[in-house]
From TrEMBL:
Keywords: Amino-acid transport, Membrane, Transmembrane, Transmembrane helix, Transport. This is L-asparagine transporter-like permease. InterPro entries: AA-permease/SLC12A_dom (IPR004841), Amino_acid_permease_CS (IPR004840). It comes from Streptomyces pseudovenezuelae. The keyword Membrane applies.
């Protein structure tokens, strides 16, 4: 569905004008939901577990790695926030890419991200099931997978406020756990924690144990831990005040990244020797808490990791369904996926959940070929999406400056200089991935999927009847 692009003299609406009028999405998310989604969205299972491998590769320089990748992510979030505040949309970056570059770009960004989110739902279900079966040995993992999938499918089939409430409390638990960890860690480093001697800087002397190559591996490992920040711009379209929600989330992104990611890494590498096997085997947070002599640290962090995984499952079922809904509303998918009932795209929720559970089945049935191929295919999708975000912002900002400057509630810093800096950073990441044997296959597989989707999108664009430039929902 579409409407003509507004002329400079017209007033551009702040909500998507081509959202189906007879079955719109609801606006059931409150500001407190968005605020907590923005806070908790940066805390995923990758931070609790995956960061251990990064520390093992980079040593104490992992703090530099997280700082570099964090700066890039902050720029991406600022660009996405600028566009999402100006054009609130459940399609987020996919709708922005279509508006700025063309329908083929929106098609490519949207469907590749949909595959990423659905596959991630399956992975998170597998991880959550492994934790629970560790507590309840003998129970089948697939049954827990199915239970988690059913719960979050049902949650997302109901009103969007249910999703918001789940994420609010999940995020509150994650944020509380991280803040408590940081308080304990800082006290221990300062020598103010009873029964604990401060290690001082003794664990930081070998700052680059594996040289620049180790730092590169650390940067790549840290970069993909930031995935999920985009969810708040998708959710904002269903809030009572989309512009305020996006603006608030983006403006607080800097301190959230600095505190939760960079702060955590600094505490961990100060407390625990970078070459400790427990960093990889048990996870960096468990290793740090055990170093402090906190009883039951492993089980406490298992609970936190379970919450993080369940939170990610909930958010990804939500995000994938909204991306699919937006794609269909813009003519990029089967109309049945766009059916909305009681403000919820229920067919899209069911389809996304089924795809996610299909990934779980593949992990048991064909783990060494089909499932591993699927994992490689989504390995670099987030970088492709970030690149399209940068290109879209570069083009849309010029258009907004000319046609509707009043819609710039959030502005990219030092435009266009920092946009180009971000694009250069992403190009450098692609080059680094090509150089690293462990990421080459992911880059190639993602490249093939992206080229195929772009080709299909371009053919569809050429065959579609000509119409005025669309405002995407």
């Amino acid at each position: 569905m579409s409407t003509p692009t507004p002329t400079p003299s017209s007033t551009a609406p702040r909500t998507p004008p081509d959202r189906p009028a007879d079955a719109p999405l609801s606006h059931g998310l409150k500001q407190r939901h968005l605020s907590m989604i923005a806070l908790g969205g940066v805390i995923g299972a990758g931070l609790f577990v995956g960061s251990g491998a990064g520390i093992a590769a980079a040593g104490p320089s992992i703090v530099v790695a997280y700082t570099l990748s964090g700066l890039l992510v902050m720029l991406v979030m600022r660009m996405l926030g600028e566009m999402s505040a100006a054009y609130p949309s459940s399609g987020s970056f996919s709708a922005h890419a279509e508006r700025a570059i063309g329908p083929w770009a929106g098609f490519t960004a949207g469907w590749s991200y949909w595959v990423l989110l659905c596959t991630a739902v399956g992975l998170e279900g597998i991880g959550a099931a492994k934790i629970v079966t560790g507590w309840l040995p003998g129970t089948p993992e697939w049954a827990w997978d199915a239970l988690f999938m059913a719960v979050f499918c049902a949650t997302n089939l109901a009103a969007v406020k249910n999703f918001g409430e789940f994420e609010f409390w999940f995020a509150a638990l994650k944020v509380g756990a991280i803040v408590l960890f940081l308080v304990l860690g800082v006290l221990a480093v300062a020598g103010a924690l009873p029964g604990t001697d401060s290690p001082g800087t003794s664990h930081l002397t070998d700052f680059l144990p594996h040289g620049s190559e180790g730092l590169v591996v650390g940067v790549l490992a840290s970069l993909f831990a930031y995935g999920g920040l985009e969810t708040v711009t998708i959710a904002a379209a269903e809030s009572q005040d989309p512009v305020r929600g996006v603006a608030s989330a983006v403006r607080t992104a800097m301190w959230r990244i600095a505190l939760f990611y960079i702060g955590s890494m600094a505490v961990i590498v100060t407390l625990v020797p970078w070459d400790a096997k427990s960093l990889v085997e048990d996870g960096p947070y468990v290793a740090a808490l055990e170093q402090l002599g906190i009883p039951g640290a492993a089980q406490v962090m298992n609970v936190v990791m379970l919450v993080a995984l369940l939170s990610a499952m909930n958010a990804n079922v939500y995000g994938s369904s909204r991306i699919a809904y937006s794609l269909v509303a813009r003519g990029h998918g089967p109309k049945s996926l766009g059916r909305v009932s009681a403000g919820v795209p229920r067919t899209a929720v069911l389809t996304s959940s089924a795809f996610g559970f299909g990934c779980v089945v593949l992990s048991y049935w064909r783990p060494d070929n089909v499932f591993s191929w699927l994992l490689n295919m989504i390995g670099a999708v987030i970088l492709v999406v970030w690149t399209l975000i940068a290109v879209s912002q570069l083009r849309l900002r010029a258009r907004l400056n000319r046609e509707a400057p009043d819609q710039l509630a959030v502005r990219m810093w030092a435009f266009p200089v920092l946009t180009w800096v971000a694009m250069a950073g992403m190009a450098a990441i692609f080059v680094l991935m090509l150089r690293e044997p462990g990421t080459q296959v992911q880059l190639y597989a993602t490249g093939v999927m992206t080229v195929v989707l772009a080709g299909v999108g371009y053919v569809r664009q050429r065959r579609a009847p000509r119409h005025p430039t669309r405002h995407s929902c």
